[in-house]
Design a protein that fits this description.
Helices cover about 15% and strands about 50% of the residues. It is mainly beta. It has a six-stranded antiparallel β-sheet.
Length: about 70
């Protein structure tokens, strides 16, 4: 079962362990859907930066995105 990451310590642990994290956002139908995945490169109280499988980097807001690994 996927584990939801919410605390800074959990993001730090995921970054150190090089775990792939999935970013999920609520769609128009009210259901969560995956919008990205990657390794945690940076995190703050406002956002999380993930490095995708293809090497691209995406910044996600923590207020409207759910993160799981």
């Amino acid at each position: 079962m996927p584990y939801t990451i919410m605390k800074n310590a959990e993001f730090f642990t995921a970054a150190l362990a090089q775990k792939y994290v999935f970013a999920l956002q609520i769609g128009p139908d009210g259901m969560y859907s995956r919008v990205g995945a990657g390794l945690v490169q940076m995190f703050s109280d406002e956002c999380v930066r993930l490095k995708n499988f293809d090497g691209s980097v995406v910044l996600y807001s923590r207020s409207d995105t759910k993160f799981q690994h």
